[in-house]
Amino acid sequence: MWFYEKHFKGKLPLNIMRSVYEDFYKNNENSEDPYAGEWEEHENIDMCNQGDVEIIHNWKATHSIQDLKNIVARKHYSAFTVSNGQPSFGHAALKKFNFELTADLCEPITRCCNHPCRIYIYKPLKVWSILDYVKPAVNDDNWVAYRNIDMCGQGDVR
């Protein structure tokens, strides 16, 4: 059984999946928008000080929630958090993780900053199975081999 099928149940880490996803849509003109997906919205939970890759100060002066969603989807981020009451932190924290973020992984604000907030979690379309897009180079009873796929520095033994 192939490593990803066994350990990731046919799914790859998001950064690899997104690359495969974009390549697939570039080569399939009739496909939907490669950044399409669903959004989950949750109040008063966050990944406080985790995964922050971009901070937009005073975001309300220059951006809407939809603008922030577009940025997250386009840049392959995972989520963003904005203030939702008082005290307010006044910025949007755009977050990126190398795993699929879920509400269960977030913590209540009472465990971190205690600032009311709202987190928007991006869920790309469920097309992330590498097996849907890559044909095996070799397939026998025990192993399936794929070309041009690697864990890039993960699991290497010297």
Count of distinct structural domains: 1
Radius of gyration: 18 Å
In order across it, which strands form the biggest sheet?
A: 1-7-4-5-3
**Approximately how much beta-strand content do the residues carry?**
15-25%
Taking all residues together, what is the mean pLDDT? 76
The helicity comes to: 10-25%
Structure class: alpha+beta
DSSP summary: helix tally: 3
What general form does the structure show?
elongated
Ends apart, CA distance between termini: 24 Å
The beta-strand count equals 9
Low-confidence stretches: 1-11
Account of the 3D structure:
With 158 residues, the chain is of the alpha+beta class. It has three helices and nine strands, in the order ααβββαββββββ. The chain has one domain (3-145). Helices cover 18% and strands 25% of the residues. A five-stranded antiparallel beta sheet has the order 1-7-4-5-3, covered by helices on one side. A two-stranded antiparallel sheet has the order 2-6. A two-stranded antiparallel ribbon has the order 8-9. Strand 4 and strand 5 form a beta hairpin. The protein starts with a helix and ends in a 13-residue tail after the last strand.
What's the short version?
By secondary structure, this protein is α+β, with helices and mostly antiparallel strands. Helices cover 18% and strands 25% of the residues. It has one domain.
Task: Write the SSE topology.
Blueprint: H1 3-7, H2 14-26, E1 37-43, E2 45-46, E3 52-57, H3 65-74, E4 79-83, E5 91-95, E6 107-108, E7 117-124, E8 138-139, E9 144-145
Antiparallel strand pairs: 1-7, 2-6, 3-5, 4-5, 4-7, 8-9
